[in-house]
Design goal:
Number of helices: 11
Low-confidence stretches: none
Main location: cytoplasm
Pathway: Amino-acid biosynthesis; L-arginine biosynthesis; L-arginine from L-ornithine and carbamoyl phosphate: step 1/3
Number of strands: 9
Structural class: alpha/beta
Number of domains: 2
Distance between the termini: 10 Å
Strand order of the largest sheet: 7-6-5-8-9
Function: Reversibly catalyzes the transfer of the carbamoyl group from carbamoyl phosphate (CP) to the N(epsilon) atom of ornithine (ORN) to produce L-citrulline.
CATH architecture of the largest domain: 3-Layer(aba) Sandwich
CATH superfamily of the largest domain: Aspartate/ornithine carbamoyltransferase
CATH class of the largest domain: Alpha Beta
Catalytic activity: carbamoyl phosphate + L-ornithine = L-citrulline + phosphate + H(+)
Largest sheet: 5 strands, parallel
Subcellular location: Cytoplasm
Mean pLDDT: 97
Bound molecules: phosphoric acid mono(formamide)ester, norvaline
Length: about 300
């Protein structure tokens, strides 16, 4: 039976540690089934609708392939050729879409948009990235960390770069999982403290200092989707914020490097780091598939 009341996944803090531990265990099992070519079809006759207001490679592919692998169907809609692009209210879209499908993923601009959509939806809504949050990516990243190094609780994660959706989701994850984030953002691109509800972080003026002793070094594009007109100014302001081998040398000897991708070698990360032995970027990308399949299963079927 489908879970009632419905549960959305709009930001990382929407699930408890206990729920994360359950879904991660399911992701392990679902991943193993996939690797073994074992058919697992709990979503027969169920449909996922994916609404994209921004570009995507990984998010679209992982949700679409994932729903297919679970025995269901996935439908891709974008702003350009749906009525959303011609001004149909997001509230109306939530009402209509949720009467025709079982679960919805939305990638859009402001978090308020996905919240208004979800408030009008009869089915679970998953955040596939907003300006403020990217919870599915950080969920996959935590799963990736655990696979490589075991528990992340008590560890130190360095964030070197823009105060963006990824950082805000990492900070929420720090509160849920109990780890610390060393944050270094360039002058003028600091965190919006109204989006931060944890004290599990330390600010560093020097990005290399933020990496000192870190178990995981994390960065992301300097210009996120929707901020393209700031690109030239950002390139100047972020000078010195590249994650290179000198910064990785400050981290713990067995530190991992993560980047949610897409990456820009020579800007936020050097080629030798992202293509080097500490980098787990391909595992992060792959784990989007397994984590989101487990998340869909959990949001629709609960604990099975
Ligand atoms: N990391 C991530 O969400 O990638 P896409 O923008 O390609 O979906
Ligand atoms: N911070 C980036 C992540 C891309 C997956 C963006 O929002 O564009």
């Amino acid at each position: 039976p489908i879970q009632k009341p419905i549960k959305h996944y709009l930001q990382f803090s929407d699930l408890t540690l206990d729920e994360y531990e359950y879904v991660i265990e399911r992701a392990r099992i679902i991943k193993r089934k996939f690797k073994n070519y074992e058919i697992y079809h709990p979503m027969i006759d169920r449909t996922l609708v994916m609404v994209f207001d921004k570009n995507s490679t990984r998010t679209r592919l992982s949700f679409e392939a994932g729903m297919h692998q679970l025995g269901g169907a996935a439908i891709y809609l974008n702003t350009r050729d749906s009525q959303l692009g011609r001004g149909e209210p997001v509230e109306d879209a939530g009402q209509v879409m949720s009467r025709m499908c079982d679960i919805i993923m939305v990638r859009t601009f402001g978090q308020d948009i996905i919240e208004r959509f979800a408030a009008n939806s009869r089915v679970p809504v998953i955040n596939g990235l907003t300006n403020e949050h990217h919870p599915c990516q950080v969920f996959a990243d935590i799963f990736t960390y655990i696979e490589h190094r075991g528990s992340i609780t008590g560890k130190t994660v360095a964030w070197v770069g823009d105060a963006n959706n990824m950082l805000y989701s990492w900070l929420q994850a720090a509160e849920v999982f109990g780890f610390h984030v060393n944050v270094s953002t360039p002058h003028g691109y600091e965190m919006d403290m109204s989006l931060v509800s944890t004290d599990r972080f330390t600010l560093f003026a020097n990005p290399a200092d933020a990496c000192e002793g870190a178990h995981l070094v994390n960065t992301d594009v300097w210009t996120s989707m929707g901020y393209e007109e700031e690109n030239a100014a950002r390139l100047k302001a972020f000078d010195g914020w590249i994650v290179d081998s000198a910064k990785m040398a400050r981290a713990a000897p067995d530190a991992l490097f993560m980047h949610c991708l897409p990456a820009h070698r020579g800007e936020e990360v050097s080629a030798d780091v992202i293509d080097g032995p500490q980098s787990v970027v391909w595992d992060e990308a792959e784990n989007r598939l397994h984590i989101q399949k487990a998340l869909i299963e959990y949001l629709l079927l609960g604990r099975i």
